[in-house]
Design brief:
This protein has 22 helices and 31 strands. With about 675 residues, it is of the alpha/beta class. The strands form eight sheets. It has a six-stranded mixed sheet with strand order 3-2-1-4-9-10. The N terminus is likely disordered.
Length: about 675
Amino acid sequence: MNQTSPASQTRSLGPLFLGIDTGGTYTDAVLWAEGSGSNPGRVVAKAKSLTTRHDLAVGISGAVDRVLEEATIDPGAIKLASMSTTLATNALVEGQGGRAALVMIGFSESDLDRDGLRTALGSDPVIFCPGGHDVHGRAAELDLSALEAALPELGRGVSGFAVCAYFATRNPAHEIAARDLIRAATGLPVTASHELSSKLGGPRRALTTLLNARLISMIDRLVAATEGFLAARNIACPLMVVRGDGALVSAAFARQRPIETILSGPAASLVGARHMTGLDNAIVSDIGGTTTDVAVLDRGRPRLDPEGATVGGFRTMVEAVAMRTFGLGGDSEVQLEAGALDPKILLGPRRLLPLSLLALTHGNDVATELERQLRSPNPGRLDGRFAVRTGVPERLAAGLTAPEAKLYEAIGAVPLALDSLLSTTAQLATLNRLVARGLVHVAGFTPSDAAHVLGRQANWDAAAAELGAELMARRRDGRGQPVAQSGEAFSERVLAALTRQSAEVILETAFTEDGLDGAATVAHALVQRAVDSQHGIARLTVALDRPVIGLGASAGLHYAGLPPLVGNACEVPSDADVANALGAVVGQVRVSADATVSQPSEGVFRLTVGDDAPRDFGFEEEALAEAETRIRVMAAERALAAGTDTAEVDIERDIQATIVEGRRMFIEARLVATASGRPRIAD
C-alpha cells in the first residue's frame, strides 16, 4: 500500500494539471505532472466515468474523484484544469441543440436556400428585417419593427437568438442594434455574426451564428458543472477549454463562443496523440461512443481546414482542425438494410443508449421487457428499443407541438419499450423530433452491446446485451429466414462491420486530403475488395503512406483488424483511452483579431475593425498602420481574457492590389494578429 502522504507525494511530482474530457458516453480525467527540459511530463493517474447528461457534474466528479484517489495528492495543489468536449460536435451530428431564433437583417427568404441554412434552421423561427450594409460599410435603412413585435412571443419559446446582418463584417452597427434590443427585451443569450467571423458569405455566417446560439445552453451547463465541482473539491485554479483548432481558451471565453468548441475533443486528441507517440506523420482515428473523428498529422502539426469545420453535414466558418467526423462509434445504432435478400448491417449515424448500459442504470425492468418480446412468436420492428427522458431542465422543452408535448409527457425517467409506447408511424416521427431536441434518449442494440455479448467488454450488463442480440438475430431476411443463427453470430457480424466501416472512413479521409472526388465511393469499393478477396480484371490494392494512431477506449478492440484493410500499421498508445483529456493540458492559448482595409473610392482607405464604425484615411500606409495598432491591442486583450499573461503577438498582412496602365491600384487588405502563450496557472 502507498504510505506516502498527499503533501509529500505532491512535492515530488512538481506542477500538476488536471485534464477532463466530457464525451457522449464517458467523461475522462487525467492528472498530468508537467515536465521540464527534455522531460515531456507524465500521466500520474487516469480514470473514466459515465457522462451524465442530466447533470454533467455527476460524471465529472466520478472521473476526477477516482483520479485524486489514485494519485493520493492534495487537490489544492492542482495548478490548472483544462477540458475538452465532444458534446457540441455530437449535438450537431445528431441534430440536437436548443431552440434558437434567427434574425436576418438585409437578407431575403431566398438566402435561406444557400449553404444549407434552411435545412439547419428546420422548424426554428426566423425574422427578416430591412437594413444591412454594402461591401464598403455604407448603411441601408434599418427597420427592426418586425423583430420588436415578435420578441414577446419568441422570448418564451426559444433559448437564444442569432443575429446576422448583410455585410456586418464591414459594419456591425445593425447587428449591434438588434443584439441590444433583444437583450433588453428578453434577457436571453444573443450571438451576433460579426463576433464569430470576419469572413464574407452571409448565409454561411448566419448558419455558424445559428449553431452557436443553439449550443450556448449546453456548453454553459458543462462549464457551470465543472466550475461547481472544482469549487466543491477546493481546487482553486483557472479552468480552460480546448477549441476546435487545438488552442486553449478560458471557460468564460468559451461560454460566449461555444461554436468554437466543435471538434474540441478531436483537436485535443490530436495534441494528445502527438504527445504520446512522438509520430510526426500519421492518420489519427479517434473512436468514441457517438463518432469517429479522423485527421492527418503532418510534420508534427494537425492540418487545419481554412474553409471552416464541417460537422453534421454543415460547413461552418469556424477555423478548426481539418477533421472529418463520422457518425460511427461504439454506441452507434445497429440496423439491417431494408428490403434486401441478404441484408447488410448498417451502423449509425445516430447514437443509441446501449441496452447493456440502460439495464445497468435501470435494473431488471429492461431485461423483463426484452424477455417478453423474445416470447412473442414473431419479431417486431420495435423490439429491443426503449425511450427514456434525458433529464435536461424543463425550460429546454419550450416550443413543443401538441403531439410532441403529449408524447414527452408519457415518457419519464423509467425506460418504456417502444412497442408499448408507440401505436402509429406518426408517433415514431414525433419521438425522433424529441430525440433531436435532446429531450429523450432512444435505447437499442449497439456495437458496445455486441462486445459485451462476446466477452470483449465487461463494464455494463452483459445479460441485457445478450437478450438484445437474440432479438436482432431472429429478425428476417428477404427470404424469411433469421439473419443470424445466434446472438453471438450476429454480434460477430456487428463488430466486423464496425472495423470494416472504420477502414472506409480512414481511407475516405485520406482520399479527400489528396483531393480525390467520390472519396467515399472509392474507399468503400477498395475495402470491399480487400475484405472479400475480390479480384477482377483490375486488381485493386490500397496502402496509406503513414501509420494510423488509434485512439479511444475501444480502439484496441475495434482496430485490431485494421492494418490489412489500410495497408499500414495501427498504433494504439497505452493512454489512448484518455488522449483527449491529456491533450487538454499540453496545449497553448491562441487567439486572433483581424481588420480589413478597403478602398471605396480613389484616395479613401476605409478601416473596419471590431465593433467600431468604419474609419476613413487618406493614405494606404496610414490605414494599415492604424489597423496593426488596433488589432495588436485587441489580440493582447483577447489573449488576457482567454487565459494567458505571456502572449506573444504576430501580425500577418494579406494585401490585394493590381497594376492598371503601369500604376499600382490597391484593392483590399486583411490583417490578422495572433496572440499565443501558455495558460496562466494558480500561484
